[in-house]
Structure formats: C-alpha cells, structure tokens
Amino acid sequence: MAKVMIIGAGGVGGVVAHKCAQLPEVFTEIVLASRTESKCKAIAEQLSRPVTTAQVDADNVAETVALLQREKPDLVINVALPYQDLAIMDACLEAGVDYLDTANYEPPEEAKFEYKWQWAYQDKFANAGRMALLGSGFDPGVTNVYTAYLKKHYLDEIHYLDIIDCNAGDHGQPFATNFNPEINIREVTANGRFWQDGDWRETGPLEENRSFDFPAGIGPKQIYLMYHEELESITKHLPEIKRARFWMTFSDNYLKHLEVLGNIGMTSIEPVQFEGKEVVPLQFLKALLPDPASLGPLTKGKTCIGCIARGVKDGVEKTFYIYNICDHEECYAEVKSQAISYTTGVPAMIGAKMMLEKKWAASGVWNMEQLDPDPFMEDLNKYGLPWQVVEIDQPTGMED
Ligand code: NDP
C-alpha cells in the first residue's frame, strides 16, 4: 500500500509511469508531476489505470514541498533532469518523503558529473530517518547492481571492470540523441576518464576506442571510452578495483555530425549574445533536434549493456560477463518508448519497489552497489530486463 510521485514526464517518466501502473499491488496510487502538465496527461491517457497529474517547477523547492504536502506520497521518483536533483532532495527532506533518482546532480553552468553534492546530503537524510537512492537507472543503476552481484556470487575480489553500453538500434534519422540531447551531448563531448591504480586518468573526448564483439547476433562494434558517473561510486565502494572503465558504441554517422556541430560551436554550454538575447548554443541545438520521445516508433534493433569483471575466486583468476539484451520494438509495443528510456525506467520502478517493500530500507544516501543485489536482480528478470552471466575463457580485447 504505497503512493508514489513521479517527477518528470519525458521518455523515462513515461516508462516509469507505465511500469508502476502495471503493479497496483505495490504502487497503489501514482501522481505524475512535471513542468508541462499536458505531457503528464498524455502519458496518463496511455495507462491501464487512473493516475493523478500535476504541474510543478521542481527548481522551486517551495512549490515541490507544497505539492508533496498536498499529495503525501511515500516516495518521489525523480526522472526530471539532473539539474533538479538537489532541489527535489531538499523538498523531500522538508516534506518527509523518501527519494530516488537515475542521474547525479549536475550544475547547469558546468558539465561535471560528480556525486559530491548529493553525498553531502548523507547526514541530513540519515538524521531525518529518510532514504535517498541515487542512480537507479541502467547505467548508473543496473551496472552498479551487476558489479555487486558478481562480487557477491562469482568473485571474491574484482580487479578489472569494464562497463560496456551498446545501442545497436537504428532510428533512421540523420542525427538524433536517444535521451535528452542536452544531457547526452554534454556527456559525450566531455573528456574521457577512467580509474587506474588509485587515481583518475584522462583522455580526450572519445579518443580511446577499440572493437568489441557483442552477443545476441549484434556482432563487432567500435566502442569509445567515456567518463560515466557510476565509476566514481563503484570505485569508492569497491576499493579493491585496480582499473574501471566505461565504454559506449557510437555510429560513424553520429560521430560525424557531432564533430561538425562541435567544430562550429553548437555543442557549447557557454552562453553567446544573439540579437540582444543570451543563447546557450547546446540548448538551441536541443530545440532543433528530434524529441527523443518521437524516436520510439521509429527505432529498430537491440541494446546490450553489461559489465565484464576480472578478478579472483578462491585464488584463481576468472572473468565474467553479465549483460542484458533489450529490443527497441518490443519496448515500444509494451510502453510506447524505445529501449533507452525503457532500460532506464524499469530499474527506476524496481528501485522504488525495493524501497517500498523495505527490501532496501536504510536511512541516508545510498548508491546501488551498496545494497543487496539479489532481490533487485530477481525483479530485473520478472519485469522486462532479463540478464545473463557467462564465464569468459577466451580473450575479449578488453584485457589491456
Ligand atoms: P526528457 O528530457 O525526455 O524529460 C525530462 C522531463 O523533466 C520533461 O518532462 C521535463 O519537462 C521535465 N523537467 C525539466 N525541468 C523540470 C523542472 N524544473 N521541473 C519539473 N519538471 C522538469 O529526459 P529523459 O526522460 O530522457 O531523462 C530523464 C532523466 O533520466 C535524466 O535525468 C537523464 O539524465 C536520466 N537518464 C538516466 C539514464 C540511466 O541509465 N541512469 C539513461 C537515460 C537518462 P518539460 O517537458 O517541461 O521540459
């Protein structure tokens, strides 16, 4: 018997609303709130049961507190943008509500993906007896849980970790991003960074790349080293890790467009003056690009996101690969979204379910790898993101 408030009605918010609506025994009541209420209403019309919709500007703490006090949810699922994280955490503390998100806080004026701002809320949440679960999407999210699961069941120590995110789907558009273009391009154009021997090493944006042969008929694809936020929390909580890297596939076409846009300054987050107005080029670009939600019916193919972990078990070196395969068209048939939103929205629902069922119950601020992976992994299999774990005894190209 629990009431949940979802904040954000974009691609991910739509999937979370569908998945929560499919489980009335857990999510008894649902409120869907966002800056533009018409988007909440459009999602509500697709659902199998009634939900309440509301308008809220989540940058405004007082407005969010007033909505929380009126609706009295047990938990907020924040799937607005990373810029809203701290304001929504403040509102949850003031109204006495638990909190969950899928992406770490980012200051709007700086493309920095760091947990320090949210970890600084540890004492506030602990003292208030409230729980905040950070990064309950796929990556971060499932990738953190995969790592914890391999550590719990397959390896005594993990020494080398590679998280590999492949989107082998095709939307047929000349250039589009699969989730919020502003967030996506900020992430991709940032320097690469990975953890090695107790320190961060930097590369230029997408400088380091190699080929990786994906399972399920996807085959070999070029993967690019990027910084991704789960590296920070995983290496903090599993200090035995000697090297941790994150890789993502990009098509040549995507990279060609991105290079040109970057060269002409369109991916910059520095404001420029245009006809007496201040314009942020990347925000203007976002206005021109297809809405990621519009790609749902167009996208075909699969995603494959997983972790390769090498370490020791009973003194013997072993390597395991754990991954999920998700099909864009199947996701669209189920929840009217492509697999990128689906693979984020399903873990957000499961994280919320863990908290409401008290399988994950602890006050303070938590990353996913700190909690027992088993009930979450069980639910991934039940609710649309089945996984496989295989032992690897041949070189994969990820050894060096
Ligand atoms: P969208 O841009 O599609 O949706 C964002 C939603 O948030 C929109 O409905 C938007 O409203 C709303 N919003 C923005 N600002 C505010 C505000 N001030 N107050 C209230 N609502 C607001 O993004 P996605 O759905 O693709 O992504 C949602 C989140 O998921 C992001 O934080 C993203 O980083 C994260 N993500 C995480 C992944 C993971 O695996 N962990 C992968 C993919 C995404 P409006 O319509 O008015 O603009």
From TrEMBL:
SUPFAM superfamilies: NAD(P)-binding Rossmann-fold domains. Residues 4-133 form the Saccharopine dehydrogenase NADP binding domain. Residues 137-385 form the Saccharopine dehydrogenase-like C-terminal domain. It holds the Pfam family Sacchrp_dh_C. This is Saccharopine dehydrogenase family protein. The lineage of its organism: Bacteria, Pseudomonadati, Pseudomonadota, Gammaproteobacteria, Cellvibrionales.
